[in-house]
Structures are given as C-alpha cells and as structure tokens.
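Subject: for your reference before the review

Hello V.,

The reviewers asked for a structural picture of the protein, and I figured it would be easier to keep everything in one thread rather than splitting it across files. Below is the amino acid sequence we used in the manuscript, unchanged from the supplementary table.
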Amino acid sequence: MSQFQTINTGYNNTFKSGELSIGIVVPIENYSNSSVPRMYDHLKLAKLIDNLGFNALWLRDVPMHVPAFGDAGQTYDPFTYLGFLAGQTEQIALGISSIALPLHHPVHVAKSVNTIDQLSKGRIILGIASGDRAEEYPATGMDYVSRGASFRDSYAYIRSSEEDFPVLDNNIFGTLDGSMDILPKPYGSKIPMLVTGHSQQSIKWIAENADGWMYYPRNFQQQELKIKEWRQLISKTHIYSKPFMQPLYIDLVDQSDFKPQGIHLGIRTGTDFLLEYLHSLKSIGANHVALNLRFNNCRIEDTLELLAKKVLPQFHNNKH
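And here is what came back from the structure prediction:
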C-alpha cells in the first residue's frame, strides 16, 4: 500500500496509510438546543483531549452566524483561536475544517496558517472549501456562483506564497511579481491542504492538487466507492497515496452494548457498536474520523475519557 507524503508533524501524526485515527470537533460540548455554543471550559477540554491522546482537534470557519444554517461553530476566529491553542497544547494536530477560501484574501490565509504552523512546530492541517452559506457572499462582496473558480485561484495563491519571492499572475486575488515575499514560510515542507466535499471541483482536480480529502458521512457501500475512486485517481498522477477522512456525530451512552440509533450525520451508541463502526471505516480505507459531540448527552469529560479508554487503544493515536 502506498505511503503518504511527509509534510509536517500534524499531518503525519494524524494520517498513516492503512490506519485510522480519531479526532474531536470543537465546540467540545452539547449545544443541540442552540446554534450558538457556550464555550465553557473550552481550554480545559482542549488540553484534556491533547493529554488523552486524540490525534487532532478540528475547528470550523463560520465567518457569520446565519441562523438558518443552524450552527455558529466555535464562534471564535479559527486562526486566532488555533494560535491560542498552539501555545496551550503539546502534541495534538490543529485542524481547520474548513476555511471558505473565497471569503478570505489568500495572503491573509497564508500568513495566518504559516504563523500557526511555525508556532506549533508543524502541527497545522488546513481544510479548504468553497463555502456553502450563500448569505455570506453578498456580505463580503464575493460572487457565490463563481466560488469554484475563486477557490482555485485562492488555492494557487497560497501554494505560490510558499515559494521564495513568488510570481503569480492571472489570479483574481492579485499579482505577485517576485519583488516581495510572504513570511513566514511553513514549518514543514508545505501546508497540508485537504479539500472538503467537492468544493465545486471534480474529484480528479482534488486528487491531483489536495493533500487529502474530507468527505461527509455516507453508508459504507457509498463511502467505499468514493474512497476507491479517489485512490485510483491519485495513482494516475502521484507515486504516493493521500488520506481520506470524515466527521461523525456521536451520542455515546455508558451502556457498552446499547443498540445503535441514528442521529443527524451519526449515531447514538455504546462503545461496542462504535468500535465495530470505526473498524468498518478503517477496512474501506478511511484514515481519520473527527467525532462531533454536539448531540452527546453524557458529561463531556466522561465521554472523552471513555473514548480514550475503550476506543483509542484500538486505533492509531498519539499515545502509541
């Protein structure tokens, strides 16, 4: 089986070819009855996740609270917040899932993410997307219909910024003529960028350009077909493979043999079925699952410790 690239600490500690690792999505709390979380004890919980051996902590980019969307994310700016967490954690990967590239100028994305990568000694993973909340586009003066092209231009700008005194033209975000540099540079060989969903791109484009793919929860047959198509396309242009990851909402009950029930984009279950489910994802080629506890009814600390005791030891984790 082809191995993954060596990019930075966060990427390579989280993604191992043939392995599955586990991460946690922020906010780390139950906020099922509101679109806006309280963010109580958020630093304490982030440190606990780091100490328990989870591989990655994932924040989202929600520039504006759109009530119809129903989720304000962590409310804090993802770059500012990850910079804060970089100084408060030691080993966990710091992930963003995902920056809506057309809504941000890429020079600011590049400078922010490279800064976090440097300060954390290579723990950043950058998810990128075209954005799915149409209401945000007129508010930022960007065209929603052409967001696919804007996404590609932003991606090209960020990649160019990793070079010394970059040169770039025919880009809607601006021209780089080689007379100026963008600092700092990434801590590792580059910033690992994973595309979320399709982001208005073909799977072929994603396989050729992204460092990994974040897709949505699907039934095993659909997901297996997606992963096979993804890896087959990668093999046509690269000598290495690339990781596949997905989120999963869980409501973990303390009865290990609890019969699973479906919830929004996930399951209410005990550890027995959760382990079976995760092993099935690993068997079809998934490399990382980001667990979302928004609908979790047990005390969050207890859930995290139960996951660390019963689930993490069976998968690739930071306490190996």
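For the response letter, the relevant points are probably these. Residues 196 and 214 are 5 Å apart (CA to CA). DSSP finds ten helices and twelve strands in the chain.

Happy to draft the paragraph if you're swamped.

O.
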